[in-house]
Design a protein that fits this description.
heterodimer, A: 5-stranded antiparallel β-sheet, 20 strands, B: alpha+beta, 4-stranded antiparallel β-sheet, 31% helix, elongated
Chain lengths: 656, 332
């Protein structure tokens, strides 16, 4: 049976389609957004003006074209972006052959699916509101299709809203108790979680400056007990030991077989918990220097002293750590490593090497050389800026002797090269520095804009020592934040410049809410579930499933009772009618049913004719009932009389 | 016999089980005068094709959510699963506590379609939507209807009437898929409903029963040259040749010619005058004559074995005659 869609239903469907598609628009190529908009507009007009639907070959060609175009735009039709692009295109193309109620059902399923794809790109708090709104709207559409003839949107939205509200407890129950399995089932497409900024596996001049423009959160830290001062908050990320003249990289593969570096703590440990946003690389950030014994089981301290997880961090994760801000790192450097940390590319930066030789020839010791270079940065006209001029082939020469304007990676790179040239083992370390305190939640937020690069030099009897040349140029950067270091004249990114008090106040609260959301909901995976549920003694899989079954069944049973009560016959308010119904029910049971065309008096007569022995009793009840219900205002005396008459009949009927 | 049974079970185990369940349920349905109160334990519910598809979609979503460890995808999947389960209760409750009563069913001629009216009362304060009546193993073809709160509505069941006599309504189902179409809830009921089926009027009028009058008028007086008395609207059963075709294009509805003399004549339709035909053919012929006579505004009587209806005219008389014809030798 084909039931064609009413125009209003179709227009509402188009509206819901627009709602579900709108967040995807920013991710789709321009041509696809335009085509989808055109298709939606065409379908609306076609319904309104009753145009003919296109023939099959047009639909076929359009579908093939869409496949081809998506393939050309994304490079493939699987994967996250390509798949989403294809899904959106197909949903819009479905409009070409859209006319019956069955088509709407198919479309509704497509719409639900489109919602899921949206969450693969964004899972912020507001998406919950979006989720509930969209599900309500799509479900309202489904309700409307089940009904012949259009229902008022208020009616369908109310019904679907009720259903969504009633489903919420079930959703929470399943979310908490449904056993989670770690890890991907079939591997993530390579573009999963794309579009996140973060530190990368190499560092070239300009890399970190571009990162600074992002306001995204890198991780959040909650300290247990003592909080180290801002100048000591260096969050260690990927270190680089290999320089090719332009880019710093990790020279050797970081293998687990490596021995962790020798660390001798000086002073007390700092304990803290980090909630790390996914960045699709393996490193975990830690305060300089992490204690190897406190590292999570699926991670280890790598050769360069940074933390590596066994697998790339593709989902938000939380870990507890312990670090020492005062330490002695690698008291004895092997000869092999020493050469590694002294290696420089041949034929690059001759003036820098000349400068190093000059310093060395003054027969200073290593520590003096470090100090004199820092003095040079401080005294000469070096400028700390987000917007440095480009550098040529000999990037360090250009920077040290020509431009003298740079950001932290320029200084770290130049300093390290200079040290190596002066025969001091050195390396570049990237990571984050500082972090902003959130007053509401008493935790620290470290953003991409806190990204930083510094140097480490190895000094006899001191081991690896952190030297931050940026601190020499712009000490405010380290002690306060980037804003203080750059000043307004530098043309800060918009979000950094206008941070008024009020803005800050709301931002702190919003970030706190986000942190809670991330920590409690988004990070709720196998580990957190285990941890949370074992508090209630439900840590094991069997217990989880049992609790889920019992809880689900219980909730559904409660809900079923509630619904059936709502749909149960309404109570009769009129006492006279109540009494009359008592008698008619009893008579019906005995086989004397009131016919639809009979009034009370006729019915009494009809019963009387069939059972003369009841005739009088029934007639009496009918008379009193008619008088009470239709003739007079309610009156307790008359009501009592009627009740007595019904009772009398009841006794009589039971006796016979 | 036994072999075939085993073969059937092996070939379609689910269908066999379904048939057995159906047979068991059907045997429990009693024919009642009504009203039938649909108790909640009399409402059966199963997922529809879309329901299964929905479950499959949720499974895929769940796998996707697991693969990407995406909490929002988990939330959406579980929300939709919750909605599905909630929908089951809504669909079930949409039928529960309704009351069914037999409505009228207009008599029809054999070969036409009988319509049974079923009155559905909703004693609750919640309106019910998209209720449909159908016979077993048939897609609901009747228009689904709604019942408002504390209101009632009339739904139709139709059944082809093949034989004259009483056509009883069989077991029927009241079903709904509201609100989401994921579940099909239904209940079986059988109401004391019978539709009277008149015999099929024979095609050609045959010779009009002219000379059958007992003290009536002679046949020669009724001829083609009767005085034309006017036109009246077409009624069911009028002979096609009595239609006034000339006026049809102008009036856009068929009119029937009336003749003055036929108005006074009295006619006896006699069973014994059709001795050359078998019983059904005789009944058909008598029905045709009765209709023609009524159309011609002539008084007519019916004489059948065991029944004599004095001459008369009008709808009540016509009904009495046709009913007598319909129920001739039909077991009550």
């Amino acid at each position: 049976m084909k039931e064609y869609l009413p125009l209003t239903t179709l227009l509402r469907l188009l509206a819901v389609l627009v709602l579900a598609l709108s967040p995807h628009v920013v991710r789709l190529p321009l041509w696809e957004s335009a085509v989808i908009a055109a298709l939606i507009a065409w379908r609306g007009l076609a319904a309104y003006k009753q145009w003919r639907m296109p023939p099959t070959w047009v639909k076929l060609i359009a579908t093939l074209l869409a496949f081809g175009a998506v393939m050309a735009s994304f490079g493939r039709i699987s994967g996250l972006n390509g798949g989403t692009g294809l899904l959106c295109a197909m949903a819009a193309l479905k409009l070409l052959e859209f006319r019956t109620r069955r088509d709407v059902m198919v479309m509704v399923f497509l719409l639900y699916f489109m919602l899921v794809t949206h969450f693969l790109f964004s899972q912020e708090i507001w998406t919950v509101v979006y989720l509930l709104g969209c599900v309500t709207a799509i479900t309202a559409l489904l309700i409307e299709v089940q009904h012949l003839g259009a229902l008022a949107p208020r009616q369908t939205l109310r019904k679907s809203g009720t259903m969504v509200l009633q489903a919420l407890p079930l959703m929470v129950l399943m979310f908490v108790l449904f056993p989670r399995i770690p890890g991907p089932l079939w591997g993530l497409p390579s573009d999963a979680g794309a579009g996140r900024s973060g530190l990368s596996e190499k560092m070239s001049p300009g890399d970190i400056a571009s990162l600074i423009k992002s306001d995204e959160v890198a991780f959040r830290v909650t300290f247990v007990g003592r909080v180290p001062p801002p100048a000591a908050r260096y969050w260690r990320g990927p270190p680089f030991d290999h320089f090719d003249g332009h880019t710093w990289e990790e020279g050797y593969a970081q293998l687990r077989a490596d021995e962790p570096p020798v660390l001798e703590p000086l002073g007390n440990a700092v304990r803290y918990e980090i909630t790390l946003e996914p960045h699709r690389s393996r490193w975990l950030f830690a305060l300089d220097m992490p204690d190897a014994s406190s590292v999570p089981p699926d991670a280890f301290v790598a050769r360069e002293g940074h933390l590596l997880a066994n697998q790339a961090v593709t989902e938000r994760r939380r870990y507890d750590l312990q670090s020492y801000t005062n330490y002695l790192l690698v008291p004895a450097l092997t000869e092999r490593n020493r050469t590694r940390y002294l290696r420089l590319p041949r034929g690059f930066n001759p003036r820098t090497i000349e400068l190093a030789d000059q310093l060395r020839s003054k027969s200073m010791d290593d520590a003096d050389i470090v100090q004199s270079v820092l003095q040079m940065f401080r005294k000469q006209n070096f400028v700390y800026t987000l917007d440095p001029p480009p550098l040529g082939r000999d990037s360090v020469d250009d920077f040290l002797f020509e431009t003298r304007r740079g950001f932290c990676e320029h200084y770290a790179s130049a300093f390290t090269v200079l040290m190596r040239a002066a025969n001091i083992p050195a390396r570049v370390v990237t990571g984050y520095q500082g972090g902003q305190r959130n007053e509401i939640g008493d935790y620290y937020v470290v953003r991409q804009s806190d990204a930083h690069a510094w140097s480490e030099v190895w000094l006899e009897s001191h081991g690896w020592v952190r030297i931050d040349p940026t601190a020499a140029i712009a000490p405010q950067r380290i002690e306060q934040n980037l804003e203080a270091a750059l000043g307004i004249a530098e043309g800060l990114p918009g979000y950094l410049s206008a941070r008024g008090r009020l803005r800050f106040y709301f931002e702190a609260r919003w970030d706190w809410l986000n942190a809670k959301w991330n920590g409690l909901v988004l990070a709720y995976g196998p580990e957190l579930q285990q941890e949370f549920l074992s508090r209630f003694g439900l840590g094991e899989l069997r217990q989880m499933i049992l609790a889920l079954t019992i809880g689900g069944t219980g909730l559904l049973a409660l809900f079923g009772l509630f619904t059936l009560r709502q749909f149960a016959p309404a109570r009769v308010d009129d006492p006279a009618l109540q009494q009359w119904q008592r008698m008619t029910r009893q008579l019906a049971k005995l086989g004397y049913v009131q016919r639809p065309d009979e009034g009370p008096l006729d019915y009494a007569q009809h019963v009387g004719a069939l059972r003369p022995e009841w005739a009088e009793a029934v007639a009496q009840v009918a008379r009193l009932y008619v008088r009470s219900r239709y003739l007079h205002a309610p009156d307790s005396a008359r009501q009592d009389e009627l009740t007595r008459a019904v009772r009398a009949f009841s006794r009589r009927a039971r006796r016979s | 016999m036994r072999f075939w049974l085993i073969f059937k079970i092996l070939l379609h185990p689910i269908r066999y089980a379904q048939d057995r369940i159906d047979a068991w349920v059907m045997a429990r349905v009693k024919r009642q005068a009504g009203p039938i109160m649909i108790g909640r334990n009399r409402v059966y519910i199963l997922p529809t094709r879309f329901g299964y598809f929905f479950a499959f979609m949720l499974l895929i979503m769940l796998l996707g959510a697991m693969n990407y460890s995406n909490s929002m995808a988990f939330l959406l999947t579980f929300l939709l699963a919750g909605i599905g389960l909630v929908c089951m209760h809504h669909t079930h409750a949409n039928l529960a506590h309704l009351q069914l009563r037999a409505g009228a069913s207009e008599p029809v001629f054999a070969g036409e379609t009988a319509h049974f009216e079923v009155r559905v009362d909703n004693p609750a304060t919640h309106p019910r939507y998209s209720l449909a009546l159908s016979w077993p193993k048939e897609e609901a073809r009747a228009r689904p209807g709604d019942v408002g709160a504390r209101d009632s509505t009339v739904l139709m069941l139709s059944l082809p009437a093949t034989r004259r006599g009483w056509l009883p309504a069989r077991v029927f189902s009241l079903s709904t898929e509201y609100p989401l179409g994921l579940f099909h809830a239904w209940t079986w009921a059988e109401l004391e409903m019978n539709c009277l089926v008149f015999p099929l009027p024979s095609a050609g009028g045959g010779a009009p029963p002219a000379n059958l009058g007992h003290g009536g008028l002679a046949s020669s007086e009724r001829s083609g040259q009767d005085e034309f008395a006017g036109l009246r609207s077409y009624r069911r059963g009028d002979a096609p040749r009595s239609i006034h075709w000339k006026s049809f294009p102008k009036l856009q509805r068929p009119m029937v010619k009336q003749f003055a003399d036929t108005l006074e004549q009295e006619l006896w339709l006699d069973w014994s005058s059709l001795a050359h035909l078998d019983i059904e053919a005789r009944l058909s012929q008598l029905t045709r004559w009765a209709l023609d006579a009524e159309a011609g505004k002539r008084a007519y009587g019916l004489r059948m074995p065991g029944t004599v209806i004095a001459p008369g005219r009008g709808d009540a008389h016509r009904f009495r005659c046709l009913k007598a014809l319909a129920l001739h030798e039909v077991a009550p």
